[in-house]
Amino acid sequence: AQNISNESEKNGMDVAEYGKHQKSLRDGGLSIENPRRQHQQDEVLVYKLQLAGMHMELPVGSRCMLVGANGAGKTTLISVLGGKHKVDESAVRVLGRPAFEDTTLCAEIALLTGNWTHTVNFVGHNVPYQAMEVSKLIEANSVGVDPERVERLVKLLEVNTKWNLTEVSDGQRRRVQILCKLVKPFKVLLLDEITTDLDLLARQDLLSFLREESEQNGVTILYCTHIFDGLDGWASHIAYVSKGEMIFAKPVSELDDRLVVSSDQAARGWGTLFCAVQRWLLDARPDFESLLKLAAPRVSYTPPGVTSGGDAPAVKLTDFTWRYKNSSAPQLDGISFEIPRGARCMLIGANGAGKTTLLKILGGKNMVPEGQVQCLGYNAFHDLELNKLVALLSGDWTRQVACVGNGVPFQADFSVGFMAENFAESLVRDGMDYEYVRSRMNRLVSLLDMDLEWRLHQVSDGQRRRAQLLLKLLRPSQLLLMDEVTTDLDVISRQALLQFLREECEERGATVVYSTHILDGLDDWPSHVLYLRGGKVNYCGELSGAPAAKTTHQLASSGSLFTRVKSWLISEREDRSQAALDVKCDATPPTTAAMATPPPPLPAKPAPAPVASSFASRFDRFGGASRQTNMYG
């Protein structure tokens, strides 16, 4: 599928020399060689290479994992292979044909990205598709497809055909996107971060399906991801990109020396692939290793009003039930639990368990009865003191636009630095120490590897997520509610952020409630676990006291936490399947009693139907009246 080799001293080449680079291509699969250019050679004002001197080849039927840091060029590479950029006709070939010029490849290549959006005038780009019925989307995309394949994917992805895209969550929208893209069989699948919103079991089921497509149907798969839970043994090839260069692209069988796991990492139960990728990224960015161990700012700060709550827990819910309008079942059903202050609590559950709903309610986004939901001793939604004590960070940093819908990203033409500086000044005006605010902002900018010159209307989704994290974490809140905020971050950026959150809890006594489906390297991070199952609390307490994984569910994983959570979700799925089989029906009377009861009288024989006319009514232009008479006569 792809061929990549680095060239020595390419940085010293001029544009003309680079264009004369000798090509070596092979037919079949995917192949790419030479960089992508932003402008024509004779028109270039600023010549910038997104992909530099790449040469890579994958055989038909291979499963290649594309890994690298944020901004390495992975998405650009996938877009080039998907025919989204015009390149040298002989440089990039898919199935032996030019990726951009041969438009017939559209029927043989499926490109799935993290965004399923479109551009709306006067609103911006990346606006999610809305107001569409899922059943009609499936019907439109499955013309000529085997119904058994459609039914299997609907069941595999647990898609409800009665959904409407206006009402579903991001995870449900992602499932519909994957279904619509995979419902037709393709020869090449280009997958760019498509599993971020799926829970563990849904992700594992999808990867098993993709493996079957590769082994049985010869489908070539290029899968770009930052999530390595349970992926050991899935890929046949691994390609590592760094700063637009292909470091290597080889079969897994030839990477034994690069996939070595240290003894301390093996003792923690971390997966081989996760440990290897983390080491590759740290080798390319040695400064991040020191950032992971950097001490928190020494200047201390006590948020106002935190002591007024006394010894109240950070979060307390008492017999709380919540349902959305027109919902047949409650999203949260009679839940009661407490989370102590200073805890690092992981919020666990399958898609649709009620995690996002719970975090929004704790963040004051919905009106709730007084006394049932308390944060830091205050009543959620009602007490305005919580505005400065609680920070809610969700996967979406969006707004609602009339006549368009919700989920529209912020795309204003101003820099991240402008936003951060203005917010920092407002914190100082509110009485916060200037040196503390500056040191905190510098620490976050370093951890998130940010450029303050980024402009929101030009950045990628990952960069926009970093801007959100910077602005939300700049204020030292006492309760941090985080809902899938690390999905766009690479391995070491995610680890650095989690290290920062650990310091927040240990140094300031803050409390973190972190909802995620990514469990790479998290075995020793949480102190507490909150497991929601179908809108009910299944377990809430310290991690050490959480239910252990069942012996039958001890599968290869990325760590003990992954194994434990996967076991819970498997048990939950098994219980749902059993409940679906336990259908109540009326008791059957004994045979003797049935024989003693006389049979009911036979119904009277209906009168013969009138003879049908040989001509349909003149008001029935399709002959319906005639057909009905003949059918029922």
Automatic annotation (TrEMBL):
> For the region Disordered, what residue ranges are annotated?
589-610
Which UniProt keyword terms apply here? ATP-binding, Nucleotide-binding
Q: InterPro entries recorded for this chain? A: AAA+_ATPase, ABC_transporter-like_ATP-bd, P-loop_NTPase
Q: Which SMART domains match?
A: AAA (SM00382)
Domain (ABC transporter): give its ranges. 30-268, 315-559
Pfam families per UniProt: ABC_tran
- Enumerate the Gene3D superfamilies for this protein: P-loop containing nucleotide triphosphate hydrolases
Molecular-function GO term, any one: ATP hydrolysis activity
Bias-annotated ranges (Pro residues): 597-609
PANTHER family (alphabetical): SKFA PEPTIDE EXPORT ATP-BINDING PROTEIN SKFE
Q: What is the protein name given in its UniProt record?
A: ABC transporter domain-containing protein
